[in-house]
Design a protein that fits this description.
The structure holds 2 protein chains of 2 kinds. Chain A is 34% helix and 30% strand. By secondary structure, chain A is of the alpha/beta class. Chain A has 3 domains: 127 residues, 3-Layer(aba) Sandwich (Rossmann fold); 65 residues, no CATH class; 80 residues, Alpha-Beta Plaits. In chain A, the strands form 3 sheets. A 6-stranded mixed beta sheet of chain A has the order 5-6-7-3-8-9, sandwiched between helices. The two termini of chain A are 35 Å apart. By secondary structure, chain B is mostly helical. Chain B has 11 helices and no strands. The longest helix of chain B has 34 residues. Classes of the chains: A alpha/beta, B mainly alpha. The interface between A and B is medium-sized, with 26 and 22 residues.
Chain lengths: 302, 259
């Protein structure tokens, strides 16, 4: 079932078009990652969906709301840099937004306590938010977005500001939330998207350059990838890959050379033969399928 | 309605946590007792300063209680208004600038409730402080000079208060229209000051201005009856307050909360 449908969404700032016509829809119960490099328009898109920004053109239609109806009770939103009233405690803030969202005092209190333990800042509930660390604020931000059980949870870079432990915990939290709500989160970290999401939207330069489920994307971009790792920097060994017509594209970083090919057996034989003839210091050789990162690099055209 | 009270409760609690409920009333009380006390001790003060030169004749009629009380109320109309504008100027602008307004307004919170609750919170603080201050003036004038009739005190308090509500509404308006609290404060002071100056300079044409209410309050204290324009001034004040509030809500709603 479609939860929200976006048609021709555009946004300009002082004549500069940042979002150049987005069309997509989100299915109920899915976890969707909005992926893209910095400046692609992820935050702007989320701000328009949350109603904080008015689109220059296009429309956003929720299946649960009529046109022009207030959709704010349907969404939970965590901005990239959440801000709170520093003089409130974590519990007070959740209580406050809970009551504003229409919960009665008793309900708000119960829900606040429940969420505080869900996001793991239970022991800090009576501390002023001003004294919270960045990671705790991020967790409180997720809790406040969930307080009124929104149909759509939108998180803007929820894990980018966290340390590895915090990132792991928040990703696990999202994994657990997947069953109860639709999640749309933006990130520029591909492995995070790969880990929790079942659907990907690639945003680049204000347009969606690719979208689909992980499996669809893999199928569509199915190209075998062969990684060669050398003991030293392989600049002088590149010739064998660039000269061969078996190579579709080549990407080298550090001591690693990744080659995309269509015909795996032929390429394997050709390259390995060449390498052993020349006696090059190959330390690792691996045939793998494309990761999200490879697909990303490919569609963005780098 | 219940949402409005939740919002107002938060305003009141915030002013309690940052101690505005303590220092604003205390400032107003100090402001209020300054004139009665300094007038009462003026002869002693002059003596302590070395007195008057020999032969100098210093004949100043002793000030009346009404004069002192009017002077005391005048303090609220100048320094008091300054304090009111400075404490109110960030009420919306600062929350929008920090981004917390966006956090609150992605929740199903009505813009009207958001603005009017902040307006009401500021009014409660200011009217409470002004009441404490003016009652202090009244009390000290009473014990040191002569008691002003209770009814005159309340009448003038109410007239002044209406003008102060106009001043606060102007500040709330600029706080919701402008992003920088400082700019909101500066422009509000300029506008409030301009209304005050124009009203006293061009009193003939501005006799229905809200700022004239202070003047009418002083006439009331002097034992005169209120001129007919008082009612028109009051009516214009109420209209202005409503227009400012509607304007604040409308312009705030048009603005994008996120940049």
């Amino acid at each position: 079932m479609t939860l929200i449908r976006i048609n021709g969404l555009r946004k300009s700032f002082q004549g500069r078009e940042v979002i150049k016509g987005l069309d997509f829809s989100l299915e109920t119960g899915k976890c969707i990652a909005l992926l893209g490099p910095n400046g692609a328009g992820k935050t702007t898109t989320l701000k328009m969906l949350s109603g904080l920004m008015k689109p220059t053109g296009g429309e956003i239609a929720f299946s649960d709301a009529k046109k022009g109806e207030d959709i704010r009770h349907l969404i939970g939103y965590l901005p990239q840099y959440p801000v709170f009233y520093d003089w409130m405690t974590g519990l007070e803030f959740l209580n406050y937004v809970g009551k504003l969202a229409g919960l009665c005092s008793k309900e708000a209190k119960m829900r606040s306590l429940e969420l505080l333990s869900l996001v793991g800042i239970d022991e800090a509930k009576n501390r002023r938010v001003g004294k919270y660390s960045g990671g705790m604020k991020q967790r409180l931000g997720i809790a406040q977005a969930l307080i009124h059980r929104p149909k759509l949870l939108m998180l803007d870079e929820p894990v980018s500001a966290l340390d590895p432990f915090g990132r792991r915990e928040v990703l696990e939290l999202l994994e657990g939330l997947k069953n109860s709500t639709t999640i749309l989160f933006s990130t520029h970290i591909l492995s995070d998207a790969e880990e929790v999401c079942d659907h990907i939207l690639f945003l680049h330069d204000g347009t969606i350059v690719e979208s689909g489920s992980m499996n669809e994307l893999r199928d569509r971009h199915q190209q075998a990838k062969i990684d060669f790792i050398f003991r030293e920097n392989p600049t002088e060994f590149l010739s064998i890959f660039t000269e061969s017509n078996l190579t579709k594209s080549i990407n080298s970083e550090g001591n690693k050379v990744s080659v995309l090919v269509d015909d795996v057996p032929a390429a394997r034989n050709h390259f390995l033969k060449g390498i052993s003839e020349r006696n090059w210091p190959l330390t690792k050789f691996e045939i793998s399928s494309m990761t999200l990162e490879d697909i990303f690099m490919k569609v963005v055209g780098k | 309605m219940s949402q409005w009270f939740v919002l107002l409760q938060k305003e009141i609690l915030e002013m309690w946590r940052n101690l505005k409920w303590v220092w604003v009333p205390i400032t107003f009380i100090l402001l209020g007792v300054k004139d009665p006390i300094s007038s009462y001790y003026m002869p002693q003060i002059i003596k302590a300063m070395g007195g008057l030169p020999k032969g100098a004749v210093f004949k100043l009629p002793p000030p009346t209680a009404v004069e002192i009380f009017v002077k005391g109320m005048g303090q609220f109309n100048t320094i008091g208004v300054l304090i009111m504008v400075l404490t109110t100027m960030g009420v919306i602008a600062a929350e929008r600038k920090s981004g917390v307004a966006a956090m609150i307004l992605v929740k199903p919170v009505s813009y009207t409730a958001f603005i009017t609750s902040k307006w009401a919170g500021s009014l409660l603080l200011m009217l409470f402080s002004f009441f404490m201050g003016s009652i202090a003036t009244w009390y000290y004038t009473g014990i040191l000079f002569k008691w002003i009739p209770m009814a005159d005190f309340f009448g003038s308090f109410l007239l002044y208060a209406v003008w102060f509500v106009v001043a606060i509404s102007i500040t709330v308006f600029f706080s919701s229209v402008l992003l920088a609290p400082g700019a909101a404060g500066f422009i509000s002071l300029a506008v409030v000051g301009l209304i005050g100056i124009l009203s006293s300079l061009l009193s003939k044409w501005m006799e229905r201005s809200p700022a004239q209410l202070a003047d009418y309050a002083n006439q009331l204290l002097a034992g005169q009856s209120l001129p007919d324009q008082t009612w028109i001034s009051l009516f214009i004040s109420f209209v202005l307050i409503i227009v400012l509030l509607i304007g604040s809500i409308f312009i705030f709603g048009k603005k994008e909360l996120a940049s």
